Amino acid sequence: MRAVVTGAAGFLGSHLCDRLLAEGWEVLGLDNLITGATENLRHLEGNPKFKFQQADVSAALRVEGSVGYVLHFASPASPPDYLKHPIETMRVGSAGTINALELAREKGAKFFLSSTSECYGDPEVSPQHENYWGNVNPVGPRSVYDEAKRFSEALTMGFHRHYGLDTHIVRIFNTYGPRMRLNDGRALPNFVYQALSGSPVTIYGDGKQTRSFCYVSDLIEGMYRLMLSEEHLPVNVGNPNEITILEFAERVRSHFPNAPALVFEPLPQDDPKRRCPDITKAKRLLKWEPKVNLEDGLRMTIAYFKDAYAKTAAK
Ligand code: NAD
Ligand code: UDP
Prior knowledge:
seven-stranded parallel beta sheet; 10 helices; binds uridine-5'-diphosphate; binds nicotinamide-adenine-dinucleotide; 38% helix; two-stranded parallel ribbon; alpha/beta; 13 strands
């Protein structure tokens, strides 16, 4: 019952560590802090079942002792983050994933890959089901992330088929919640930061593009069930409530009495026009579906962001 989590100091990695510890696992968290922060793990200090090491998993991945599960979450995930760190993103999706898979093979451990709805690119099919192969521009700016994740999936299936490694792949759709970085550039942190600081709320394009936002506790529950399942092919985990970005911005603004105005800016290249998970497979295999509605999720996340904003303002 010892798990290694790469990307442990990130938004999702830190919540995953909490869940594994709550389920009785010992956890070794690894992170090079390129986009994460040890602050996300502060509450685990002094927990004898948790250890943290600052390490770049793209360089090498040596772990002493027995390991039962390797969960690979290391990778910049926000578009501005992966556009700022394109080579590191491709490295962690390629060399980092091989290192994590080799660690699992050496230890006789199971392996879990955090993949993404970005594998579907700018989809021509909606909602996206797991058998859709996607519409990715292989040389566009987003390809540093999309193709790295597609390669990670191919590597994982290669290790499963060639070595018989027990592997699992989750395709995560837009997830939000406490411990997202207020300045990570994704839609929700941007909108909240703008509302808190009184700067205009930026809508890219006409705001008619859609996303489907899943609260972090729902995602973690779905992923934990997948970890324990027998499924090796990718499974979508996300919330199927599709909403335009314009509506989403209005929902966020409604939480602020003096919310600033909207401002329209150019749509980034290859920004997907629609994104919505088909979760039929997760419902059937994992008996899972999301429970937290957008209003409750926003309330909990905005409370976290207000606190984080007050702390930075006080510094
Ligand atoms: P995040 O940026 O908060 O966390 C990623 C963590 O990985 C950070 O702590 C970062 O420092 C670490 N990391 C990056 N490269 C590393 C390296 N070479 N060695 C060690 N650590 C490294 O992002 P997140 O939202 O928590 O995403 C976590 C994972 O989930 C990523 O793999 C991402 O692709 C995937 N994902 C997330 C979402 C989402 O909506 N949050 C959606 C789809 C997929
Ligand atoms: N977006 C926006 N304003 C912002 C940040 C993002 O309109 O300040 C849009 C972005 O163009 C995309 C959607 O919101 O269409 C979701 O963006 P995010 O970066 O959160 O994640 P993505 O789903 O693109 O990976």
